[in-house]
């Protein structure tokens, strides 16, 4: 897959631009130029008889699995090189018959740490692209920072601000267990040093035909702010008006620009839905905060039948940044 990276050197030296956004709004900002009702990417080139890395550039990513094959008490991770050289693990991570990249995760599985409650089959952005001399955590050439960080921090990071765009279909959600957890899956994230500026959810309840989309903006060291994009995150909500069915393709784009979070949901032939969140008071612009994107399925149900699972197929995935080295 061709990757697009844009370089704005001025971001590394200039003071951050002020923005007229307060709290959560419907302002599309840099997403306003996206065509209405047109899914992102071109999946006509995808092949069904190859590994995911032959359809997608995965050298920018590592993969976390809900397995613990080496018995170290933590979820297994596949780093950039083996992931980009043909790694497949059916039924958790493989290429679908239509060429899409499949992620599946059971309700019960290995977790990344003792503080993590849920298992995942999820990509973690790795801007070092296989250069193991660069450390994975911290302000390094593996991670990015907000444009409001100090100039020296911006120079030490791999990039400044950025976007993640994806086209996918959620094929299955959990159907058993705690009613407050059933049907939930995170399909995209920005993870910071400790907390998450965004966790993007899809949720379909067992009694509904259609699913909702919403996101959480976690204040650094604080509580979550919830923003509903399509339908409700409630555990007893009826079918959301104009919701998204299982196996229905849709796109999302997440952008951080000048401490504002922009999120756009795109469905074929329908009007795009824009949301934005002012993050200037959220605590992520400090010099200690570093970021990375995540995409895949992060199962948000750790109850019910152990054989229950979530699954999504990605047809387009692209991460874009401003900064040095790109």
CATH architecture: Sandwich
Mean pLDDT comes to: 91
Number of helices: 3
- What kind of sheet is the major sheet? 9 strands, mixed
- % residues in beta strands: 25-35%
Query: Roughly how much helix do the residues carry, as a percent range?
Result: under 10%
Q: CATH topology, what is it called?
A: Jelly Rolls
Shape verdict = globular
Describe the protein:
The protein has 326 residues and is mainly β. The protein has a single domain, classed as Jelly Rolls (Sandwich). The chain contains three helices and 17 strands. Strands 1, 4, 5, 7, 8, 13, 14, 15 and 17 form a nine-stranded mixed β-sheet that branches. Strands 3-2-6-16-9-10-11-12 form an eight-stranded antiparallel β-sheet. Strand 7 (144-145), helix 3 and strand 8 (159-172) form a beta-alpha-beta unit. The longest helix has 6 residues, at 151-156. It is globular and about 50 Å long. Residues 1-22 have low confidence and may be disordered.
